[in-house]
Queue: 2 jobs
Job 1
Amino acid sequence: MTASNAVGDGTAGNETTEQAPQGKATLRGRTILMSGGSRGIGLAIALRAARDGANVVLMAKTGEPHPKLDGTVHTAAQQIEDAGGAALPLVGDVRNDDDVAGAVAAAVERFGGIDVVVNNASAIDLSKTPDIDMKRYDLMADINVRGTFLLSKFSIDALRRSDNPHILTLSPPLNLDPRWAGKHLAYTLAKYGMSLTTLGLAEEFRADGIGVNSLWPATLIDTAAIRNMPGGGTMVQAARSPEIVADAAHAVLTRNSRDCTGNFFTDEEVLRQEGETDFTGYSLGAPEDRLVPDIFL
């Protein structure tokens, strides 16, 4: 794992979650450690936190520009700084034990602690069982399941020292309707492995006050991963922007961790709990009744 110079000065982590002037909770001064985050939903979550003045540590593989994907961990860090946060960009692989351990240590050294872990890194392949390449199967299992477990595991000691510690994983509700396994078994196993990690960690660390939850979009979200799929350019026309997931994540992460744990939220559900009912501002143009529901729901 390699780290570039930290962007922004920032403040030490583990500050009490403050109240903004409007009475809304804020992530100001909190330290977030995220896997991935160079683009898409992860970057949107990071930028929403940065607008509060949060410290964001990004560990992602994309240190150099990708021929098919916009953004690197360094460009993301600059965007976080421009949005008002402090950033520490780290080039690393969530599958690598040393990289993950190094990211946790770097976050603690740079910002004084960790308040939030966001398990955002994920790989997707919707191939049927006869067609899935086992290297792709292993990639999904290693990034989605093992990576989520590993980053969470290595962060526990630091989270225990926070006054409002959260782990948020971007994974779906555990839906045992056989159709989801039947559609794309390899991917379903990988995503449900992430969700089982949420279920187990929430129970194991309930007494420590660590809030562990999963968040999943109710509709398709416009991301590079979707756009690069066959027909993806058409699919995203019936999608929402990543900002809806970012706003929902912000709401979860500013809640009391002792009262908010073991949940499998959708973005719409969280925002409705916050009093929001009009989601048209997140649409990319399609009417609400023509948006494509996300899978697993």
Job 2
Amino acid sequence: MPSLQDQLLKAGLVDKKQVKQVNKEKRKQTNVARRSAEEVVDEVKQQAEQARLEKVQRDRELNRQRDQELQNKAIAAQIKQLVDNNRQPKGGEVEYNFTDGKQIKKIRMKPEMQQQLIRGLLTIVKSAGEYELVPRIIADKIALRDPDCVLVANAKAATDTKDDDPYADYVIPDDLMW
């Protein structure tokens, strides 16, 4: 297979004098590079290498972002599944007010559920824009995945009373509403 120079000569695009001059320049560059301690820098190769490195870095960043998005979707699906499988029925006579960020929201529930929520046995979580009641154990699992989903998680109330409590002898009535 003839070289590119031979093909250009045959086509008449260059003459022998130009080919000899180019070959002479190439030999000069290789001799200078071989004799001198300095390395001849090929700017085209350097720019190509720089462009390749930048592309590799961009690809890595895009892959990292895509992996992060997939991980976030997986966590959201896990939270949704936990809430769907363990939600408690809503609706009832009592309204419970709570905050979601800077907004005050309310949810209706039965009085027994309100007591469980106050004692820390139930919690309020936000899933797909909805507020749901779930058991404390499930809310702890959700909080491991995304702490922002758990909106109301009261601390479990201690059932034992202190010995130095001055009001220990007084019973709090059950029908007391605040």
